[in-house]
Every structure is written in C-alpha cells, then in structure tokens.
Amino acid sequence: MSEEVKQDVVDETTENTVNDAENTVDVGAEAVEAEVVEDTEEAVVDAAQVLEELKNEFDNRYKRLQADFDNFRRRTNQEKEQLSGFVKGNVLADLLPVLDNFERAVQSPAEGDAKTFLDGFVMIHQNLMATLQKHGLAPIEAVGQPFDPNLHQAIMRVETDEYPEDTVVEVLQTGYTVDGRCIRPAMVKVSGN
Fold first, then answer.
1. Where does residue 136 fall: left (phi above 0), alpha (psi -120 to 50 degrees), or beta otherwise?
2. Which of 84, 77, 89, 76 shows the shortest CA–CA distance to 178?
3. Is the pLDDT of residue 171 over 80?
4. Which site among 11, 99, 122, 186 is 20 to 30 Å from 26 CA-CA?
5. Are strands 186-191 and 152-158 parallel, antiparallel or unpaired?
C-alpha cells in the first residue's frame, strides 16, 4: 500500500471516528438535555403542587378566620342587646312604684278642686305610660286569662261562676314586661276551689 492510500485510510478512519464521536456526543448531549428538561418539568410540577396546597391551606385558614370573626360579631351584638335589655328592664322596674302610685291616685274618687287635681294626675300618668311604652314597657293583660306562673303571681283563690277554674279574675297589682321579658309579674286573684 502506498503512502497515499494509507493516509487516505487513516484520514477516513479518523474522520469516521470523529464523526462517530460527534454523533455520540450529540446523542449524549440530547439525552442529558432531555433528562434535564424532564427533571425541570418534574420540579416545576412538584413546586406547582406545593404552591397549590399552600394556597388551599391559606384559603381554608382565611375562611375559618372570617367565620370566627362573623360569629364573634354576632355574639357580641346579641350580648349587647341582652345587656341593654337588662339595664332597661332594671331602670323601668325602679320606676314601677312611681307608676303604681299614679294609678292609685287616678283611681281614687275626687270632686271639685280635687277633680281638677286628679285630671292633672291622669295626664301625667298618660305621659309617663307613653314614655315607658316607647322604651318597651308593656302591662301584662291578666283578667280573663289562664293563670301563667311566668306572668302572674297568685295571691289568693276565689270561687266564681263567671270564670273557669285557674283563670285570673282580678288584678291587685299590674305586672309588666320589657321587650317581651317579664320584669314584674301581676299580683292576681285566681278562680278555683
């Protein structure tokens, strides 16, 4: 073999080896690149799942906090209303003896100058009742009603054919409610044996 042919064979072999090496490097690089891309995609997917879980957890916490706050606000408003009702009931209960005295004065017989004085008392009584009713005070209607221990305080029993048994026949002292809550039961006579 001539030198030239040997050189051509060496060149061709070298070229084939280089080409094979380049192909191997290209295939290896593509495989590495594909693996890197695949690992990156998996990492992105994992990160997205973690972020989604965190978002859901924060959303749940936010909703729970919002519900807790709404419950707190509702409870606070209810407690405020109850406290207001109790305070109002206590103030109005303190005014009831004054109201009782007005009612006694209005019911007493009067003539002449006493009649004029009594008419003034009647107007004052009406004004006082209107003011108290504006704040939730209501008299308990008792005569002819079935006896209710929550609203009536029985002082005595009387026999009567006018009312069925356990019915209020007479009110001795008016009872009152404030916003539906009894602050003083009516003292009553009840029919029965």
1. left
2. 89
3. yes
4. 11
5. parallel
